[in-house]
């Protein structure tokens, strides 16, 4: 089982790293790393309007690991392969010459993580707010899979709704599943402090990470956003399967039926029954209830020229509008 010790920030992180990044404050600590807000003195010297960035270093437990620097590099390299508005932007990777500590710098995200948003919506988010978030998250993940990158640790705490948009981050348990990316070092899942309640059954059984396992995890996150609670009462897939929780799964109130069909399939414990994909789930969330209506009903509700084609641009503007509403109300 993964380590259950509570995460702690590195005890001896220097105040100035790489002769360039001055630590301002701790932003968060996860199972593997600690993330700080830092001032980039070089940016500041050239009057860059945004001199603060995020800096991720490994926590003491992982920093002591023989391959620690290579593992953080792998996270950086995987993230660098991705170019998507809903995936965090990595900036650079360094080894601090004085302390020997590896660190990476990243876009600074300001805003709540999805676990906060779920806690703020105990009865679930209404469809108009949920849809653009789901589309942003699923298109980020579909992009990663298209680029041959699996995430491996999808959970609400690894997604932030920043003032600049939704961002998926923390590819520390990710892996390249195609071509030379597969040769990057990988952390043994046995060592990792991953969250069992988002892990697909086959991962709990020790199998390799696959796109289908990412699909199960993202489906748990979407269900939680839509209903306010974890689909299987925060149990692991194995515990929930023993208690036959799959059969009692209820459709969250605001989710249109055709979307629910896809989401429910993505939540199947048996990977052989998980016969959908991130791309298909994305398509279902994009269309909403449109596909579920009989053609006569659909025609009645469509403007004469037909609805605008689902495009990245319309997804972006819906997400922007939902975010503006969210930040106004919080
Ligand atoms: N770029 C960022 N901007 C702001 N906060 C961040 C950023 N990256 C991570 N965090 C915060 O730090 C925490 C730990 O970061 P994460 O990359 O998830 O580390 P771990 O691999 O240990 O889980 C996150 O849960 C989040 O609260
Ligand atoms: Mg994390």
TrEMBL record:
> CDD domains, alphabetically?
STKc_PknB_like
Annotated spans, Disordered: 290-317
The protein, known as: Serine/threonine-protein kinase Stk1
Q: Which organism is it from?
A: Halopseudomonas aestusnigri
Q: Which domain of life is it from?
A: Bacteria
- Domain named Protein kinase: residues: 21-286
The answer to whether keyword ATP-binding applies is yes
Residues that bind ATP, according to the entry? 56
The entry's keywords: ATP-binding, Kinase, Nucleotide-binding, Transferase
The yes or no answer to whether the keyword Protein transport is present is no
Molecular function (GO) terms listed?
ATP binding; protein serine/threonine kinase activity
Task: Spell out the InterPro entries in the cross-references.
Answer: Kinase-like_dom_sf, Prot_kinase_dom, Protein_kinase_ATP_BS, Ser/Thr_kinase_AS
């Amino acid at each position: 089982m993964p380590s259950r010790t509570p995460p702690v920030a590195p005890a001896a992180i220097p105040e100035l790293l790489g002769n360039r990044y001055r630590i301002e404050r701790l932003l968060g600590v996860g199972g593997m790393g600690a993330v700080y807000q830092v001032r980039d003195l070089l940016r500041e010297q050239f009057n860059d309007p945004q001199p603060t960035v995020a800096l991720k270093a490994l926590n003491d437990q992982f920093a002591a690991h023989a391959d620690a620097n290579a593992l953080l590099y792998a996270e950086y390299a995987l993230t660098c392969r991705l170019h998507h508005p809903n995936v965090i932007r990595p900036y650079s990777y360094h080894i601090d010459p004085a302390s020997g500590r590896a660190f990476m710098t990243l876009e600074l995200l300001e805003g709540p993580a999805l676990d906060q948003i779920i806690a703020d919506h105990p009865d679930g988010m209404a469809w108009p707010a949920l849809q653009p978030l789901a589309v942003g998250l699923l298109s980020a993940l579909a992009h990663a899979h298209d680029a041959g990158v699996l995430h491996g640790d999808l959970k609400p705490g690894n997604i932030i709704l920043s003032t600049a948009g939704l961002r998926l981050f923390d590819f520390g348990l990710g892996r390249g599943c195609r071509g030379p990316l597969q040769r990057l070092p990988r952390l043994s899942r046995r060592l990792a402090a991953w969250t069992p309640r988002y892990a697909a059954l086959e991962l709990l059984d020790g199998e390799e990470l696959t796109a289908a396992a990412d699909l199960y995890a993202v489906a748990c996150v979407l269900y939680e956003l839509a209903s306010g609670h974890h689909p299987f009462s925060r149990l692991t897939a194995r515990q929930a399967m023993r208690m036959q929780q799959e059969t009692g799964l209820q459709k969250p109130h605001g989710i249109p039926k055709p979307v629910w069909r896809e989401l429910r399939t993505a939540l199947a414990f048996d990977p052989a029954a998980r016969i959908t994909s991130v791309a298909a789930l994305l398509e279902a969330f994009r269309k909403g209830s449109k596909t579920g209506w009989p053609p006569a009903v659909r025609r009645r509700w469509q403007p004469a020229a037909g609805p605008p084609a689902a495009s990245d641009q319309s997804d972006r503007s819906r997400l922007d509008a939902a975010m503006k509403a969210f930040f106004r109300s919080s």
